[in-house]
Automatic annotation (TrEMBL):
Organism, scientific name: Autumnicola tepida
Protein name as catalogued: DUF6090 family protein
Superkingdom of origin: Bacteria
InterPro entries: DUF6090
Regions crossing the membrane: 21-40
Length: 255
């Protein structure tokens, strides 16, 4: 009988130890799982922080490039506004048949033949588009601004290309009709240098009068008087969107 009770007590002790060991094992497993979850969370947090840093570097480049674009737009606006106004005055003089009195005005419109182009720095934006971080700005205010910005850039490129192509054609034709050596000399040589030459000043003016009276020259004046204003308006529109991009990037970088 005593043997039976002794076996019973031993079995109870064994079962108690097994139960405690089972609870301990479960606790160990839970701790391991919690440790893994914490490690994953830390890894995800570090990855998110690295991604955020990389995105901000891309945005910083776009911001810098946009600011430089705006400076170039300001310079182009000043140039085209001035030349456009000169061409409008020259066009009025032509309509009023006062070209002879305003020959110097018509001469100043020769700047309308210069083929300037607005060439934005797109490298920062293209780099972001080709990176894995581009999705982070999808359907955001910045995404909308950038899309609008480069749509206007394309419109400007088409406008400038159309104008410059036409002007180059007119200039090439004029080159076949006139000896422009006197005109170029007046444009690029200082007055003191011209005064000591054998060619009298009156001959320069005669050459200019004939040159500026040509249909091709006046066609360019007329086009510049109209189209430069349109170009400047496009520059202003793009500048406004560009300032919006810079402001939006400043907000994102600070967050």
């Amino acid at each position: 009988m005593s043997r039976i009770f002794r076996k019973f007590r031993l079995s109870q002790i064994s079962e108690s130890r097994s139960g405690k060991y089972f609870i301990y094992a479960i606790g160990e497993i839970i701790l391991v799982v919690i440790g893994i979850l914490i490690a994953l969370q830390i890894n995800n947090w570090n990855q998110a922080r690295n991604d955020d840093k990389a995105l901000k570097e891309y945005l910083g480049k776009i911001r810098s490039h946009t600011l430089k674009d705006i400076q170039w737009l300001d310079s182009l606006s000043i140039y085209r506004t001035y030349v456009g106004l000169q061409c409008k005055k020259a066009r009025k003089s032509i309509l009023d048949k006062t070209e002879e009195q305003n020959l110097s005005l018509l001469m100043s419109c020769g700047s309308a033949f210069m083929d300037y182009y607005f060439r934005p720095n797109t490298s920062g934006y293209e780099a972001l588009k080709n990176s894995k971080y581009f999705g982070k700005i999808n359907n955001t205010v910045l995404d909308s601004l950038l899309t609008n910005y480069y749509r206007i850039v394309d419109d400007i490129a088409q406008n400038e290309s159309s104008y410059n192509h036409y002007v180059n054609g007119q200039e090439n034709y004029l080159s076949t009709q006139f000896d422009r050596s006197l005109i170029l000399a007046t444009a690029f040589l200082p007055p003191d240098s011209l005064n000591i030459r054998a060619t009298p000043q009156s001959e320069y003016y005669e050459d200019f009068a004939e040159y500026t009276a040509s249909a091709s020259y006046r066609n360019v004046i007329g086009l510049a008087a109209f189209q430069f204003e349109s170009m400047v308006n496009q520059y202003k529109k793009l500048k406004g969107v560009g300032n919006g991009i810079v402001t939006e990037i400043d907000v994102l970088i600070k967050n």
